[in-house]
Amino acid sequence: MERVALYLQDSHDLRDGLDYVRYAEEKGFEAVWQAESRLVRDAIVPMAAYAAVTERIDIGSGVINNWTRNIGLLAATFLTLDDLAPGRVICGIGAWWDPLAKNVGIDRRKPLTAMRETVEVLRRLLNMERVTYHGEFHYVDGIELDVVHGRREPRDVRIMIGATGPKMMEMTGEIADGAVLNYCVPPEYNLMALEMLEAGAKKAGRTLDDIDRPQLVVCSVDHDHDKAIDYTRELLTQYLAQQPHIAKASGVSMDVVEKIQSILGWPATHEQIQAAKHLVPDDLIHRISASGTPDEARKKVKEYIDNGCTCPILYPVGGDFKLLIDTFAQN
Q: What whole-number percentage of the chain has pLDDT above 70?
């Protein structure tokens, strides 16, 4: 396992996250990715903090959405992050999901067109071009990043799309530097993803090898096998109910999803999760996550690599983040 990354979300104190990132850097991890999904922590503030306390590790958004930040502000934000960590910043961006987007007033119409426009304009701005672009979702006239202090040369910010569906996956292969493959899917899901990425890459005169393919992997590690499994069961209870696109990609029965949804509210309470978690079967946990003892977790993560993942992004579930980092340490 030559490459490995850490995924941080919101289950820990934010200041503790700085310690986890420094520890991951010390242990040879390639990158840290900060989540931005539900209405909890945004990705940018933690990313800036990680950049300020590290020297080598890459820092990615895993993933922000392309709907809620004006394109000029989006480019300025990643320019600023690159000022903090030159050449170490990755813009992971996705099309968000319903019902959350709808509930905050976002109409996710034509998601492919919207994403294509976002990537094109963002890339040109970070290339320090003066941009005029009259699209359906982005309309700008003669704008450029105005650097008063700092580097005026083009910025090396990689743009990776968090794609799940086949059409978005194909477009990712055509226009992005890589795909952030989703979590809570079985390893064989990647075979479809690789096929679509390759088809998109060919449109741009590239090959599949030109497309980086880091992948989020839910990873619950504990020396007690049953405890590790139970941690993941609680996580999946919430995800299957609130992120139906993940449930669909993982092949979960809609009957199971609907039963869980009938118990969980929004946001879900601890009591509701406890009441519904028995509906998540053991075989699903083993199929779509790397959960168990350190040896079991390493074996499952290798399945994702064997199916085309270039760098596992490990999402720690449970209390001992440092045990997970030690389990996958590169030095």
A: 99
